[in-house]
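C-alpha cells incoming
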C-alpha cells in the first residue's frame, strides 16, 4: 500500500516552480513517460529536448510523440537511483527551454567503451621516449618519466584492485612489475611501448562489445504505443494506460494492443508475427484476439483481458529478458592464460634476479609474457571479421556471437518468412473438366477481387497481371468478411471465396479430377489429385455452377533449397523447422528442402520454441536459431546464436546476434564461412604470439636477453599477430 500511494503521488506530480510544465504519467524501473504540453506546440523545443536527452549517458532510448505531448524515456539505473535519474530528466526538460546544460545524475567513474582518448597518455609517453632515446632530442628526463608514470597509473590501479580486492595476482601485476623494473634501468621506451600496445588491445577488445542491454530495453516498445478506448467517447491513450476491462477499438491497418475477446465486429487478422501462420484468419464476436497481431480489414471492439506484460506478446518479451545472460564481451583468452602464467613467471624472474642480481634480465622475463600478442591480436581479428561480415551485408553484433557461430552444429529455422517468402502467392489455377477454361476463371476472379486490400485479393491481382489477364469491369458487388465476394461481371454472377460461401449459395462442390471422383475439399487425400500439398484453395463459381479453384501458398525463398542443402551436405549440420503454422504446410516445406519429418515441429507457440531450443542445447548441441517474427524472439533469445533479417519484426531484429541485412539466406552461409575462417586465424595468432616469446624466454633464462630485445620480440610478435588478424579485411569473397 505504501508503494502504491507513493506511486500515486509521483504520477500526479506537477511542476510548480519550473518554467516548462510537465507531468509524470507512468513509470516503472528503467522507464518513465512524461506529458509535456509544450511538445505539441513548440517544434523547436521538442527537437532541443530530444537531442539533449539522447545525448545523456544514462539514456538508452527516447520516443517523443509531439502530437500527444508525450516523451517516453528508457534509462540505465546502475549508476544512480531511480529517483535521482528522474530528477535529472526533469532538469533536462527544463534545460531544453533555453538549451543549456544540466547537472549529471551521477558522476561517471569510467570512460565510455571505445573512447580513443584512452590512448593519448600512452601515445604521448611513447613519443617522448622516442624523442629522448632514439632521436636524442633535448627533452628533460623528468618529463619523460612523468609521462610514463601517469600513463601507467591505470595499470597500477588494476593491479592494486586485484591484489587488495580479490587477493589474486593477474596479468596487470606482471605488467606493473615489468614497468617498474624497466623504469629502474632508465629505459623509458620499453615501458611506454608496453603501455601503448596493451591499451590499444584493450580498446579494440572493448569496441567489439555487444550492445544487448540497450537492445533488450527496446523490446517492449516495439509491441505498440497507443490504443483507442471507450471512455466518455473514444479516446486515444498511451498503451500503458489501458486497463483490464477497458473496451479497446481497433481499426483496419492497426495492431491489436491487448489480449481479449471481441465484443462487436468481425475482422480479418494477420497473426503471422505472433503465431507464424502465413494466412490471415477471420475473428468474430466472442473469439479471442492477441496483442501485436494486425487487423487487415474490419473494425472490432475488444474487451481487454490481459495488458502489457500479461499479454502473450508481453510474455514472450518476459521470456527473452529471463533468458541466460551471456558475457557480451569477447572472451578474454589472455586473462585465462595469464592466471596460469603469472606465478611461474614471477618465480622465474625472482630466481634469475637472485642468481644474477640483474634487474634487466628479470624485467626481460616479465616482459616476455606472450599474453600481449593474444590480448592485441584476438580482438583485432574479431573486429576485422565483424567489419568484413558487415561488408557482406551481415551484421554480427559481438565477438562472442562470431565465436559461437563457428561452433554451431545445429540450425533451427522458423518457416514463415524465413524459409518461405512470407507473402501469399497464387501457384496455380485448376478448372473443372468440361466447363470453363483456367484463363477465364482467373479473369473472373481478378475482376471480382480488384481494388480489395485483402492479402489474397492482392495475390490474385498480381498473378493476373503476370499472366496478362484482362481486368473486366465489376458491376454490383458485395464483400462478406471471412467468406468472399459476390459480384456481377460480364453479365455473370460470380462468387470467389471459401467453400462455405458457395455452399450458402446452394452450389455443389462435387467434381472430377482426371477421372477420379472426389469431394473437392478432401481431394488432397487422393494420390492423383493435382492440388499441391502445401497449397490452400479459393473457390470460383459462375452462373450457379462451380468452375474451379485458385491455389495459393506461401512459396519458398528462391535460395532456401540451395542454402539448406549446403548446410546439410557441406557443413554436416542438423536442421530443424519450428513453426506456428499447421502441420500439413510445415511438412510440405520440410519435404521440399530435404529435412526429415522427425525434425519438424508445427503449431508451436513461442514458449514451446524456447523449450525445444533448450532441449537441443541440453543435449550438447550448439544451436543457432533463424527467425523473423515476434513469435520467434523467444527462440532467438535462448539459442547459442540468434539470426534474423534486416526486414524482420523489430523484436526479432533487436534480439538477434546476427542480422542478415540483405534479407537473403545466402548471408547465413557467408556468416558461417567468416566465423570458421576467423577461428583458424585465431589459432594462427596464438602460435605467432606464443612461439617467439617462449623461444626468447628460454634465452633470457639461460644466457640472458637485453630488455629492449625482449620488448622487440614481445611487441614484434604481437604486431605480427595483429596484422595477421587483419587479413579478413583484405579478402573480398568467401566461397561457400
Amino acid at each position: 500500500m505504501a508503494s502504491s500511494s507513493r506511486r500515486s503521488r509521483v504520477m500526479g506530480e506537477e511542476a510548480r516552480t519550473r518554467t516548462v510544465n510537465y507531468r509524470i504519467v507512468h513509470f516503472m524501473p528503467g522507464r518513465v513517460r512524461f506529458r509535456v504540453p509544450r511538445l505539441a506546440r513548440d517544434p523547436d523545443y521538442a527537437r532541443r529536448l530530444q537531442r539533449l536527452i539522447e545525448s545523456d549517458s544514462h539514456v538508452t532510448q527516447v520516443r517523443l510523440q509531439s502530437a500527444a505531448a508525450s516523451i517516453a524515456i528508457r534509462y540505465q539505473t546502475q549508476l544512480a537511483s531511480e529517483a535521482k535519474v528522474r530528477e535529472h530528466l526533469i532538469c533536462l526538460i527544463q534545460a531544453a527551454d533555453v538549451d543549456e546544460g544540466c547537472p549529471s545524475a551521477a558522476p561517471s567513474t569510467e570512460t565510455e567503451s571505445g573512447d580513443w582518448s584512452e590512448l593519448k597518455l600512452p601515445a604521448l609517453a611513447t613519443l617522448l621516449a622516442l624523442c629522448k632515446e632514439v632521436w636524442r632530442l633535448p627533452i628533460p628526463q623528468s618529463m619523460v618519466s612523468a609521462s610514463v608514470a601517469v600513463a601507467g597509473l591505470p595499470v597500477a590501479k588494476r593491479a592494486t584492485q586485484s591484489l587488495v580486492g580479490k587477493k589474486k595476482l593477474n596479468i596487470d601485476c606482471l605488467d606493473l612489475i615489468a614497468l617498474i623494473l624497466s623504469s629502474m634501468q632508465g629505459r623509458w621506451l620499453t615501458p611506454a611501448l608496453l603501455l601503448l600496445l596493451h591499451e590499444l588491445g584493450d580498446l579494440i577488445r572493448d569496441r567489439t562489445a555487444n550492445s544487448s542491454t540497450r537492445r533488450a530495453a527496446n523490446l517492449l516498445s516495439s509491441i505498440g504505443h497507443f490504443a483507442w478506448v471507450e471512455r466518455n467517447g473514444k479516446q486515444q491513450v498511451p498503451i500503458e494506460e489501458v486497463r483490464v476491462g477497458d473496451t479497446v477499438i481497433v481499426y483496419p491497418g492497426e495492431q491489436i494492443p491487448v489480449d481479449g475477446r471481441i465484443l462487436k465486429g468481425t475482422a480479418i487478422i494477420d497473426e503471422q508475427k505472433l503465431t507464424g501462420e502465413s494466412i490471415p484468419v477471420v475473428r468474430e464476436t466472442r473469439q479471442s484476439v492477441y496483442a501485436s497481431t494486425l487487423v487487415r480489414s474490419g473494425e472490432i471492439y475488444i474487451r481487454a483481458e490481459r495488458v502489457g506484460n500479461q499479454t502473450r506478446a508481453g510474455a514472450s518479451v518476459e521470456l527473452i529478458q529471463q533468458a541466460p545472460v551471456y558475457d557480451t564481451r569477447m572472451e578474454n583468452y589472455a586473462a585465462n592464460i595469464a592466471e596460469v602464467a603469472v606465478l611461474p613467471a614471477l618465480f622465474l624472474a625472482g630466481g634469475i634476479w637472485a642468481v644474477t642480481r640483474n634487474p634487466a634480465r628479470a624485467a626481460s622475463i616479465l616482459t616476455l609474457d606472450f599474453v600481449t600478442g593474444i590480448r592485441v591480436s584476438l580482438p583485432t581479428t574479431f573486429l576485422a571479421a565483424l567489419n568484413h561480415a558487415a561488408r557482406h551485408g551481415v551484421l554480427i553484433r559481438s565477438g562472442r556471437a562470431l565465436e559461437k557461430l563457428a561452433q554451431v552444429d545445429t540450425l533451427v529455422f522458423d518457416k514463415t518468412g524465413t524459409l518461405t517468402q512470407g507473402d501469399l502467392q497464387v501457384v496455380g489455377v485448376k478448372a473443372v473438366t468440361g466447363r470453363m477454361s483456367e484463363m477465364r476463371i482467373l479473369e473472373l476472379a481478378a475482376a471480382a477481387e480488384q481494388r480489395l486490400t485483402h492479402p489474397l485479393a492482392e495475390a490474385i491481382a498480381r498473378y493476373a497481371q503476370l499472366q496478362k489477364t484482362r481486368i473486366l469491369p465489376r458491376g454490383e458487388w458485395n464483400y462478406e468478411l471471412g467468406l468472399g465476394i459476390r459480384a456481377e461481371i460480364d453479365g455473370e454472377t460470380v462468387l470467389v471465396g471459401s467453400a462455405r460461401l458457395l455452399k450458402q449459395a446452394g452450389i455443389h462442390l462435387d467434381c472430377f479430377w482426371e477421372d477420379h471422383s472426389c469431394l473437392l475439399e478432401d481431394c488432397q487425400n487422393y494420390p492423383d489429385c493435382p492440388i499441391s500439398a502445401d497449397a490452400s484453395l479459393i473457390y470460383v463459381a459462375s452462373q450457379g455452377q462451380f468452375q474451379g479453384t485458385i491455389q495459393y501458398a506461401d512459396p519458398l525463398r528462391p535460395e532456401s533449397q540451395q542454402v539448406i542443402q549446403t548446410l546439410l551436405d557441406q557443413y554436416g549440420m542438423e536442421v530443424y523447422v519450428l513453426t506456428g503454422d499447421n502441420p500439413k504446410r510445415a511438412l510440405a516445406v520440410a519435404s521440399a528442402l530435404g529435412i526429415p519429418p522427425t525434425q519438424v515441429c508445427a503449431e508451436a507457440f513461442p514458449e514451446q520454441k524456447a523449450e525445444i531450443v533448450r532441449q537441443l542445447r541440453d543435449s550438447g548441441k550448439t544451436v543457432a536459431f533463424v527467425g523473423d517474427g515476434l513469435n520467434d524472439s523467444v527462440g532467438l533469445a535462448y539459442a547459442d546464436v540468434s539470426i534474423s533479417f534486416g526486414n524482420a519484426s523489430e523484436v526479432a531484429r533487436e534480439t538477434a546476434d546476427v542480422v542478415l541485412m540483405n534479407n537473403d539466406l545466402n548471408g547465413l552461409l557467408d556468416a558461417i564461412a567468416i566465423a570458421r575462417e576467423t577461428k583458424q586465424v585465431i589459432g594462427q595468432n596464438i602460435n605467432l604470439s606464443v612461439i617467439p616469446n617462449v623461444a626468447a624466454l628460454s634465452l633470457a633464462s639461460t644466457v640472458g636477453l637485453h630488455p629492449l630485445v625482449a620488448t622487440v620480440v614481445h611487441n614484434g610478435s604481437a604486431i605480427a599477430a595483429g596484422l595477421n588478424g587483419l587479413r579478413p579485411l583484405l579478402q573480398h569473397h568467401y566461397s561457400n
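note: The longest helix spans residues 666-702.
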